[in-house]
Amino acid sequence: MSKETSDNSLRKNRLGVLGIVFFVVAASAPLVGMTGAVPVAILLGNGAAAPGAYLLVGLVLILFSVGFTAMTSKVTNAGAFFAYVGRGLGKNAGIGSALVSIVGYVTIQLAIYGFFGGLLMVQVEAEFGFAFPWYLWAAIAWVIVTALSLLSVDVGAKVLGALMALEVLSLLVAGVAILANHSGEMNFAASFSPENIFVGGFSGGAGIAIAFALASFIGFEATAIYGEESINPKRAVPRATYWAIGIITVLFTIVSFAMVTGLGSADVVNEVAAISEGGLNPASVIFSLVETNVGHWLVVIMEWLVVSSLFAGLLAFQNANSRYVFALGRAGVLPKSLGKTNASGAPTGGVVVTSVLAGLVIVVFAVQNLDPIMNLFFWMSAITAIAIMLVEMLVSAAVIRFFMKNPGTHWFKALVAPAVSVLALGFGLYLLMSRFNLLSGLVESVDSNGIPIAWSMTPLGWSLVLLPFIALVIGVVWGLINKNDDSKMSDDILS
Question: Under DSSP, is residue 31 helix (H, G, I), strand (E, B) or coil?
């Protein structure tokens, strides 16, 4: 086993359970999901049962985490999924999964840059009367995020902790206030009974709602990425994973249920359509409810917290992606210069590569005069949802294979939970791909009600939906032709 030096290993004992939770919950950007995804899940999905879809997805991901966290006692690596898949399915599959993960984290970061820039462009002009182009705001965020990610990871955790605490608190205040004011109108059956959750079928309303719910959880799986920098990773990573999924699930379920209750479960679809202008302005739904049930002061705070939520997501995904690049560089899959850290223990090469890629795409979208939200955000975030779901399936399959070769772990963790996860995640991936047109806005045709037909995508839509699979194939092929026999590759992927 090759020996790690101070400049090719991440700084240890920097993060506790809370620090990891801050990164992954911030990455899921719950306030952005509440303002953007939940109203659309209600309007085009299963209506009043959208909270049930979020609860269902949370339970499935907890099941996935049973096998996922069982691997943390065997592998502690900044490459996380890539190391897990490599241990279970072999080096080539591990490299393929790493490239898919990088595609997923790069595209979600790009999506957030677009949303951040577009939102600030509109919000600053409305509040203060002066207009800067979206790409200038994105560039400012790019500089700050790059600088923070070059510092010690615990500095970023403190920034994210403060932003996330305010974000979660504002949502809980809003949710509790709405439910308190409408306590006699709560209809649990409408939101959580199976027949309502699955109304419309998987090719219709239920499938749309579940697809949006799955996309809202992106980021929780990054807990293992911080294992090398955590205090007692074999305990911290599993706890952080369960805490992160639990927080995200409870938050989305309670607040979305409050939204349904506040608008009236019987007529919630029409109410959302009216308030959001047919889905064109989904953020107005929760802001309208907060205005009525809490007060304008919280609306103002939440409008700016959406901006801070996006910034927190940028920093979280920058850290996650740079650590994937670092792990691949250290293993010899990418140039070894990328597997170095600076004096603060931050993965310098990974940060630079991630920032350069993001900067180049921002420039391209700006030069082409593409819309930061309708194009950059929707296209890129849809790719992310496909990529992460694909890697999660590979991880579950790898867990089964690994524990078959290395018995001794409880049968439920080693076989049942990951096997059910493969099936559930595979079905979830099918739903995401079938509704990629809705997630990305790249619709080829619609039905008589104006809802996009499943699997009906433009040529660009098909190109984007297949991108994660292309990355997987390239990674596997690269593993086959890369004859690097450095022992560090074996250490990072196979041992």
Answer: helix
Inter-residue contact 457 to 445 (CB < 8 Å):
no
pLDDT tens, position by position, 447-481? 777 777 878 889 999 999 999 999 999 999 988 88
Type of residue at 196: N
Helix (H) or strand (E) holding 354: helix 348-367
pTM above 0.85, yes or no: no
Angle between helices 378-405 and 81-89 (to 10 degrees): 40
DSSP state of 493: I
> What is the Cα–Cα distance from 346 to 9, expressed in whole angstroms?
9
Partners of 230 in the β-ladder? 15
Beta bridge partners of 446: 452
Could you tell me the CA-to-CA distances from 175 to 33, 171, 172, 294 in Å, in that order?
Answer: 14, 6, 5, 10
Q: Domains plus CATH for the chain? A: 17-494 (1.20.1740.10)
- d(CA 339, CA 328) in angstroms, rounded, equals 7
Choose among 242, 268, 241, 274: nearest CA to 256: 268
Kindly state the tokens that stand for 435.
Answer: 């509704």
